[in-house]
């Protein structure tokens, strides 16, 4: 099996969840059957949405460069980044290393289209993810319609991510349910949870079956590309 590199800490709880799920979903009967994995949990990474909205991305990109080159030096064959919004910078950060970075949004949309047969995909993520079209561009490339929340419901999404999960508080599922009801009214047949903090919500609460967790897709791709069996 090949060694997996992970850039995490965005946020730390989501990265911890990613690691535990990689362990849980790897077919293994002993320690040596699990992946060799190098996880850099850089909680000090500048906020991705803020970097996008202000255009001040120099510190973020430099942090990514240092982390990626460290993972390359450790001999990692693939890299997973446990933050959806950071994929706005995908082309720039991929240029920092020869090691392939798994494109979480692209794989999540593929799961929605090829795995679920979705025709209209709802996108539930940060302002940075929504406004920059990280997921909508992938939906367009896949030939499916896409929907983002109204401004009121997008405020609910941001509150769940920043006021609840990142602040260490339980998610307010009333806000989550309001967003879901809007997606359903707009005829979405799949909704991508396009923020790893929303993956934590899914871990702790029951969510509708139409939800596709981008983190789950990243976990599966990380295991399979490393040469192990996903279960």
Write the layout of secondary structure elements.
Elements lengths: L3 E5 L3 H14 L11 E5 L6 H7 L3 H16 L4 E4 L8 H5 L9 H12 L4 E5 L2 H6 L1 H9 L2 E3 L3 H15 L7 H13 L4 E4 L2 H9 L6 E3 H12 L6
Parallel strand pairs: 1-2, 1-3, 4-5, 4-6, 6-7
Helix pairs in contact: 1-10, 1-11, 5-7, 5-11, 8-9
Would you kindly provide a written description of the structure presented here, covering whatever features stand out?
It contains 11 helices and 7 strands. The chain is of the alpha/beta class. The strands form 2 sheets. Strands 5-4-6-7 form a 4-stranded parallel beta sheet, sandwiched between helices. A 3-stranded parallel beta sheet has the order 2-1-3, with helices on both faces. Strand 1, helix 1 and strand 2 form a beta-alpha-beta unit. Helix 5 packs across helix 7. The longest helix has 16 residues.
Computed structural class:
alpha/beta
Strand order of the largest sheet: 5-4-6-7
Task: Give the CA-CA distance, first to last residue.
Answer: 16 Å
Query: What sort of overall outline do the alpha carbons produce when their principal axes are compared?
Result: globular
Report low-confidence residues grouped into runs of 5 or more.
Answer: none
Strand residue content: 5-15%
Please tally the helical runs, counting DSSP H or I stretches of 4 or more residues: 11
